[in-house]
Amino acid sequence: MSKPNVHGLPQFLRKDEKGYFLDYYLKEGRQRIRKRVRLGQIPLEKARKVLAQHMQAIVEGKFLAEEKQSITFNEAADAFLAYSESRKKSFKQDKMYVRNLKAFFGDKHLESVNLDLVESYLNWRRKEGNKHWKELTGTTLNRDLACLKTIVRRAKLNRQIQVNPLEGIKLFKEIPRDRTLTPEEYQRLVEHCTRHLKPMVELAYVTAMRRGEIMGLKWQQVDFQHGVIILEAGETKTQEKREIPIDEHLKAVIRIIPKFLGCPYVFNYRGKKLSDFKTAFRNACEKANLKGFHFHDLRHCAVTNMRKAGVPEGVIMSVSGHKTNAVFRRYDQVDRMDRKEALDKVRGFNNTDKTRVGNS
Questions:
Q1: Shared-domain flag, residues 200 and 331
Q2: Within this chain, do residues 195 and 333 fall inside the same structural domain, yes or no?
Q3: Are 143 and 122 contacting, i.e. CB atoms less than 8 angstroms apart?
């Protein structure tokens, strides 16, 4: 707190060209907020009386302290969902994360959420997850934590809380999936796909298109003449327009898909947009004896295969829609054959170098 200055004014009282003013600090959460209350051009004795009237409140940190309307976690979460629905393509996923968070934090005041309470949530989430699914991974829990952090951060931006109580929270270390298919495994998978599933698998394996992009693909987006699929900015996860090349084989695969009058979607079921195909894909993987393989892993396959074929990284990212090298590297899998080829290249280089030195 302030101390008496050289002019002999008492603690908390100051003066400048505009007159006397009270100068003190309030403690709000982990922060100290400086307050200056102007008294104007008044006599010193009157300024001293004003200070005396409020001295006790100033010392206790109550004088002119803002009355904050306490907000519950449910209220903050609902506000976040309203934002997500209007701004984010991942709204459906956000609803799922928020449902889990609400079940634990509920009507607790948002200011009461701290790091210890978050750890209690993680323990509760693991136990709940084990009741219905297999053990939850750090990656899954990180999605919950990311959503929680966003809810709290938006509440702070809206000035509903003064400080972010989750500063310093640590995420779990994520282990990227490294499952890709050998040519033989891919052939087995295709052979066991249903008629409706097969073209979607082929498209994902070659082009690295995302599941949602494939399910939402419309006939008007397929340009057979120029051999591209055009995804507008509003149709991609990154909100950026993308052109995906298709070769003659993919053109033929898409052309034989039946069209339904009034249905704009390429992949449909009896003239209606597909809502899901998890069961069909899981059955195909089981018949092909592919354990632990997900549809999204086909995107890993496409990126890795393009890199092995010598396609420049920038071109691959343009096709796949990756915006950063860090995320791209998670999809580009270096396997045993890559490492063996690297050793062969080094050995070949060393042998060539020895020959050159020996002839010099």
A1: yes
A2: yes
A3: no
Q: Tell me, yes or no, whether 195 and 318 share the same domain.
A: yes
Do 216 and 290 fall into the same domain?
yes
How far, CA to CA in Å, does 154 sit from each of 76, 110, 122, 149, 173? 8, 12, 22, 9, 25
User: Which helix (H) or strand (E) is 150 found in, with range?
Assistant: helix 138-157
Q: Which residues span the domain enclosing 309? A: 183-337
Q: Per-residue pLDDT for the chain (360 aa), expressed as one digit of tens each?
A: 445 555 678 888 988 888 888 888 887 767 788 888 888 888 888 889 888 888 888 887 877 765 556 789 999 999 999 999 988 878 889 999 999 999 999 999 898 899 999 999 999 999 887 666 667 888 889 999 999 999 999 998 888 887 788 888 888 887 777 788 999 999 999 999 999 999 999 999 999 899 989 999 999 999 999 999 998 877 677 677 888 889 999 999 999 998 888 899 999 888 888 888 999 999 999 999 999 899 999 998 988 888 888 888 888 888 888 776 666 666 666 556 655 665 565 556 556 654 554 555
Question: What residue type is 68 in one-letter code?
Answer: K
Q: How many domains does the chain have?
A: 3
d(CA 62, CA 66): 9
HSE-CB of 89 using CA atoms within 13 angstroms: 11
pTM as predicted: 0.61
Looking up residue 216, the CATH number of its domain turns out to be 1.10.443.10
User: What number of CA atoms fall less than 13 Å from residue 284's CA on the CB side?
Assistant: 24
CA distance 266 to 250: 13
Which residues does residue 228 pair with via DSSP β-bridges, in sequence order? 223, 245
**Buried/exposed 201-238: b ≥16 CB within 10 Å, e otherwise:** bbbbbbbbbbbebbbbbeeebbeeeeeebebeeebbee
Pairing of strands 242-245, 228-231: antiparallel
Residue owning tokens 């699929």: 229
Cβ atoms 54, 22 nearer than 8 A: yes
